[in-house]
Each structure stands twice: as structure tokens, then as C-alpha cells.
């Protein structure tokens, strides 16, 4: 018991140490950035100082939240639907092998067509509301989730499946007891990829037609050559993506903690 507590304590210390190194490294990069801009007298419209970006964020505080919330709605709704749709399609392809042959090429094709070519069509078909932005997010996030779940199904131990079948386990029991637990690491890997693309998908949708959102703010800042504002909005997008990624990691720790235990043992 004492040994396991000591291992856990050492792991927590190691994580804290890594976190401090990461924060220190990021702060050092910001200091170097500030020093270069100030030292070489670079104009803010070419490359703004980190302090100028921070000031811009403070100046925009009253208009930021409504735009962040608009983009966040598109991202969260699109992600949730991507997970449901991706899981459903992957399960159907696993249950009925012929669908694997029929649907897989369509999944690949969906990723070869540029989103910037599809997004205007979605605007034409569904208007300028929330739906076309959600669909852009779904088109971007659906593929990695579906593909990773399929990969997970293919790595399930066949001997374990045979054992459950000899015990007369039903189809849904095979999924509940064997396949779903085995697929979780792959599902979360796909979700981590999807969540990093989701914000970008919402931004692309807003570029092509919206009245509110971070994409709209980004477009206006670009057209007005407001470089400090452009960097400030980009920082919010990066921060939002990082928060979503961290939430997925926390969910993975809660739902499938054995994944991290295996990694820590290595």
C-alpha cells in the first residue's frame, strides 16, 4: 500500500514538474518575443508585442464573450453530433461487413474535397444560421472519430470474442463487455484530433457567412490591418482549442484511466 502511494506521489510530482517547465518555457518565449520587438523597434502593425496583444484583449472584453459563445456553440454541437454519427457509422460497418466496403471510400472522399469548396454550398442550402457552421465542424471531425473507432474494433482480441461466444454471449454483450472497452483508447485518440480541428471548422464556416463569432472578428481585423487585434483573436482561438483538448484528456482519465497507467508503467 505504501509502495503504491509512493508511486502515485512520485507521478504527481513528475507531472507538476513538467507543468512548471512548460509554463516557464512559454513565458520565456513571450519575454524573447517582447525583447525582439522592442529591441529592433518593430511596428505593432507588422508584429505586435505580447503586451500590446494583452492590452487589445482587455480593450475587447465587452464584445469578446458573445462572439466566443457563438463559436463555442457551433463547436460543441458539431462535436457532439460528430461523435454520435461517427460511432453509429463505425458500429454499423463493424456489424455488417459489406457496409465497410461501401462506406469506407465515401469517408475518404469526404476528406479529399476542400472544406472551403463545400462550405459556400452549405450556406446556399441552409442559410447563414447555426446549421451550416455545425455541418462544417461535422465534416471535419467525423472522419478521425469514425476511422479510429474502426481501427479499435479491428484490434479486439479474437480469442476473447471466441470465449464470450462459447459462453453464449449476445451481440450487444460482446460490444458492451469486450469491444467498447477495447475501442476507448482509439476513440479518445480520434476525439483529440477532432477537437483540435473543430474550432478551425467553425472559424471557416464563419468566414464564409456569419454576423457573429470569432471567425467574423478575425475577418474584420484582417481586412482592417489591425494586427494586434488579429493576434489577440488568434490567441483566444488557440486558448479555446487548448481548453477543449484538456477537457478531452480529463474525460479520458475518468472513463479509461488504465490507458494512463499503461503509459506510466512504460
TrEMBL record:
CDD domains to which the protein is assigned, alphabetical: TM_PBP2
UniProt feature coiled coil, ranges: none
Main subcellular location of this protein, as a coarse class: membrane
Cellular localisation: Cell membrane
GO cellular component term, pick one: plasma membrane
BP terms from Gene Ontology: transmembrane transport
Record-annotated ABC transmembrane type-1 domain positions: 68-248
Spans through the membrane: 20-42, 75-99, 106-128, 134-153, 183-210, 230-251
UniProt topology in membrane: Multi-pass membrane protein
PANTHER family per UniProt: ABC TRANSPORTER PERMEASE PROTEIN HI_0355-RELATED, ALKANE SULFONATE ABC TRANSPORTER-RELATED, MEMBRANE SUBUNIT
Protein name, per record: ABC transporter permease
Annotated organism of origin: Heyndrickxia ginsengihumi
Organism phylogeny: Bacteria, Bacillati, Bacillota, Bacilli, Bacillales
Amino acid at each position: 500500500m505504501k509502495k503504491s502511494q509512493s508511486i502515485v506521489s512520485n507521478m504527481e510530482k513528475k507531472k507538476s514538474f513538467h507543468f512548471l517547465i512548460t509554463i516557464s518555457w512559454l513565458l520565456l518565449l513571450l519575454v524573447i518575443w517582447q525583447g525582439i520587438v522592442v529591441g529592433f523597434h518593430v511596428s505593432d502593425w507588422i508584429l505586435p508585442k505580447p503586451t500590446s496583444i494583452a492590452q487589445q484583449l482587455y480593450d475587447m472584453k465587452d464584445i469578446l464573450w458573445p462572439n466566443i459563445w457563438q463559436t463555442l456553440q457551433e463547436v460543441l454541437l458539431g462535436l457532439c453530433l460528430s461523435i454520435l454519427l461517427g460511432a453509429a457509422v463505425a458500429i454499423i460497418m463493424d456489424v455488417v461487413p459489406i457496409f465497410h466496403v461501401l462506406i469506407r471510400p465515401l469517408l475518404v472522399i469526404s476528406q479529399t474535397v476542400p472544406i472551403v469548396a463545400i462550405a459556400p454550398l452549405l450556406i446556399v442550402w441552409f442559410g447563414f444560421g447555426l446549421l451550416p457552421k455545425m455541418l462544417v465542424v461535422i465534416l471535419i471531425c467525423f472522419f478521425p472519430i469514425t476511422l479510429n473507432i474502426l481501427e479499435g474494433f479491428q484490434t479486439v482480441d479474437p480469442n476473447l470474442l471466441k470465449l464470450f461466444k462459447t459462453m453464449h454471449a449476445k451481440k450487444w454483450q460482446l460490444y458492451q463487455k469486450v469491444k467498447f472497452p477495447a475501442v476507448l483508447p482509439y476513440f479518445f485518440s480520434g476525439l483529440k484530433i477532432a477537437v483540435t480541428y473543430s474550432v478551425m471548422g467553425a472559424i471557416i464556416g464563419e468566414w464564409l457567412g456569419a454576423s457573429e463569432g470569432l471567425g467574423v472578428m478575425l475577418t474584420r481585423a484582417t481586412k482592417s490591418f489591425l494586427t494586434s487585434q488579429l493576434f489577440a483573436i488568434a490567441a483566444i482561438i488557440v486558448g479555446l482549442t487548448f481548453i477543449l483538448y484538456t477537457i478531452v484528456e480529463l474525460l479520458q482519465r475518468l472513463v479509461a484511466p488504465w490507458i494512463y497507467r499503461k503509459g506510466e508503467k512504460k
